[in-house]
Design goal:
Number of domains: 1
Structural class: alpha+beta
Helix content: 25-40%
Number of helices: 4
Shape: globular
Strand content: 25-35%
Distance between the termini: 30 Å
Largest sheet: 9 strands, antiparallel
Order of helices and strands: HHHEEEEHEEEEE
Length: about 180
């Protein structure tokens, strides 16, 4: 079981790192100019939500969006941390277990994001798995029962923490 847990943790870390790299590739090189323009023009900081059109292979019950929570997102399972902004979210009810993902950002330390989600997940019966980092990246895994898992990883740069949460949970958890 210990080897399985380490492989699962490594896979989750790789998935989180891939998501963060993809996010970084879509982010302007300088966040200073972005912050200045948003402060000078509040309308510029309001982001519209965009849902990608389904690909020919997309199945009913799968969705992803940028800048908002997808319709049907299980907010009870993964509540948005107060003060955080949604970068992207996705939901796939066609898999067993169902897959839910949330990428958000907040101007708070990484430890605060981990503490918020640790409390929220433990209140729902998830147990933390030993370990607090993958390399230098703060990362925490949770387990509920034998097959429901959640991973949260947080990358902090210039006062902004970007968190990535991936969950594989029973279908009834995403209703």
């Amino acid at each position: 079981m210990k080897v399985f847990g380490q492989r699962k943790r490594a896979a989750a870390a790789i998935a989180a790192a891939g998501t963060l790299l993809a996010l970084a590739a879509c982010t302007p090189a300088s966040s200073e100019g972005l912050a200045t323009s948003s402060a000078a023009n509040p309308a510029a900081s309001a982001q519209s939500s965009t849902t990608a059109p389904p690909s020919p292979s997309a199945e009913p019950g799968t969705s992803a969006t940028v800048g908002a929570l997808v319709p049907g997102f299980p907010q009870k399972l993964l509540p948005l941390m107060p003060g955080a902004k949604v970068v992207s979210s996705s939901l796939d009810k066609t898999t067993v277990p169902a897959t839910v993902a949330l990428v958000g950002s907040i101007t708070a330390p990484a430890a605060d994001a981990l503490a918020f989600y640790t409390k929220a997940l433990q209140a729902q019966g998830f147990k933390p798995v030993p370990g607090e980092t993958v390399g230098a990246l703060p990362s925490k895994d949770f387990l509920r029962g034998d097959n429901e898992t959640v991973n949260i990883s947080v990358m902090q740069t210039t006062g902004v923490s970007t968190f990535t949460i991936g969950a594989n949970v029973a279908a009834e958890s995403v209703k």
